[in-house]
Design a protein that fits this description.
Elements (H helix, E strand, L loop, with lengths): L2 E10 L2 H12 L3 E2 L6 E4 L7 E6 L10 E5 L4 H14 L2 E2 L11 E4 L5 E4 L13 E6 L3 H11 L3 E5 L2 E5 L6 E4 L12 E7 L3 H10 L3 E5 L7 E4 L5 E4 L4
Parallel strand pairs: 1-4, 5-8, 9-12, 13-16
Antiparallel strand pairs: 1-13, 2-3, 3-4, 5-9, 6-7, 7-8, 10-11, 11-12, 14-15, 15-16
Amino acid sequence: MSSRLFAISFDARQPERLARFWSGLLGLERADDSHGGVALLSGNDADYRLGFRPSQARKVAQNRSHFDLTSSSPEDQQETVARALGLGARHADVGQGPDASHVVLADPEGNEFCVLEPGNKFLLGCGLIGALACDGSQAVGYFWREALGWPLVWDQDEETAIQSPNGGTKITWGGPPLMPDPGKDLHLDLAPDDDPQGEVERLLSLGAKRLGSAGGGDGAVLMADPDGNEFRVLTHR
């Protein structure tokens, strides 16, 4: 039994509006969604979607997870930043300092993301969405390695990263200390290969906790990883 990463989903007060922002920024096409939200095809080798799920949760702190967008040149970085600002993003201060070579922005609902400078060797070949960068422990990196069957591509000084065998977006964890729960964030949606209940049991054995029904009428199971980050196991696609 195993799961594949079906979607990286945003908690969104206005799913349609937020999806339009990310579609315009990344040039992504809309996909059918049967899980009560809006979805975009990522076009990434890791083969996931971007999901936008309706939520009235209020953001109270910096997100634990954010996208790192790559650039091929200084001009490309500047163009991505300008396009984001034109679509409704704003500059954000997360303590990066005035000399940072990357640009930190927040989307129209306050979700932080970075536009990286060119020449980032770690994310070379990962695509425009180079990484989902997460605040999290080494243990949670190990958990997601087993949950998704993605091999570790970094494991040093309590920092970990995994990547699909097909390439594409890396998922990284920066080690302790863990930031507080931001109230709304990005979450992973998993699609079991065959038996959803059996997959839930496998994830529990790896250290997850079952939180109950995810709501929305689609039968998804709401769980939390060892760091307490919520994720969903989809019972149908």
